[in-house]
Every structure is written in C-alpha cells, then in structure tokens.
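Bug report

Summary: structure tokens for YggT family protein differ between web form and batch submission.
Environment: batch mode, default settings.
Steps: 1) Submit the sequence below via batch. 2) Compare with the web form result.

Sequence submitted:
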Amino acid sequence: MGSIQSLALTLVELYQFAIVGYILMSWFPGARDSSIGLFLSRIVEPYLEPFRSIIPPLGMIDISGIVALITLRFARNGLIVLFNML
C-alpha cells in the first residue's frame, strides 16, 4: 500500500510543478507556443479552466492558478488522510 501512496503523491507533486511551470511561462513572450508550452497546456488547461470560469481576472492578474494550486494541495492532504485510514 505504501508504494501506491508514494506514487499517487509523487504524481500530484509533479502536476503541481507542471502548473507552476505553465503559470511562469506566461511571463515570457512566446514560451507557451514552444513544444514544452504546448505539452503543458494540454495537461494543465483542463484543470485550470473551471477555476478561470469561476474566478474572474483582477485586471492583468489571474489568480486562478494560485487557487488551483491551493485546491490541489487540499486534495493531496486528503489523499494522505485517506491512505492513512487504509
């Protein structure tokens, strides 16, 4: 059971890094048009889209990525509790 838990937590952490990388790519012109940017867009945008539809951008600042990361952190903590119950 420990290996399944560590695999699940590792995948969540990798997804968090992917989200952070995708958010940071918005600071550099043309970075999201690269092959890495397109790959990250395909895996991150489906998760970020519901947050963007709920949370409107505040001027030039889009905080939906931060809310998405916080939500993913809560889900990770829920996984830890769930695995500890088993």
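Above is the batch result. After comparison, the two runs are identical; trailing whitespace caused the diff. Residues 2-85 form one domain. The chain has one domain: 2-85.
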